[in-house]
Amino acid sequence: FERLKQFVASHASELKEIEELFEESCSEIWNPFSDVIAVQTEAHESCGVADLVVTDNKHVSKVVVVFSSLTIEFIRLQNIAEGEFFRPLACFGERYDDEPIPEGDESANVAALLPLLEDLSTFVQRCHDVVANAISQLAGLYGSKALREGFSGAQLGCFLGRLGDLLRTLVTLDLLIAGNEELQAQWPEFKRMLQSAALEPEVFGMNPQRIGRLLMAAMRLESELFAGAIFRDCVAQTFEWFDGGGGGAAEARSNAAMMKHVHE
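Structure tokens predicted for WASH complex subunit 4 N-terminal domain-containing protein:
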């Protein structure tokens, strides 16, 4: 019996040493759901495009910086669309059963989607502005004889490819909205509810001015985001550029040199 007690005590001592050894070598795993603050120790580059472009020709440097910055912005906007808008628009209205939707839930679902649609409207306008700026810069490059000759051998395949990716992203957003049957079915019901509330606000217990603003916002979102308006409004906008000759703004589509290069 004494030998058994000694063995148990010795074994317990060894186990304690092993536990202490592991406690000294292992740290607690960070729990992102319970820990409020986390510190990222990964190294990140803080080098801008202007710092990377160094040439002995200031005009070349400016052109490279402009088109590089636009290309980076194309990629950033595409990532935002894929990360923030694609999935919510594709999954809106998805249910686990085929039971009829209770009365009033359709309007509530669309109302809950309005903040996302507002963010999407702002995002789409940003995309339109960036595309317009890109086309204007491209027209300016090929509208200047000196710049055109200086960049005659330059290849803008990466720039044009990323621009095409951004335009494809706008088309995808149009398809997601048009292809979501639940959204297409519930949106008219939501508008009818707002119109009824605007006519009889006391029945709904809402402020008439607030109802009016909400209805106007819904109509604006419909004109900006539905029926293929995202891509259509982008390509239908006026792409202005200044040729530097004092003739004022012109339509970039009239720049024959640019159109020839793009089609090539």
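The chain has one domain: 55-263.
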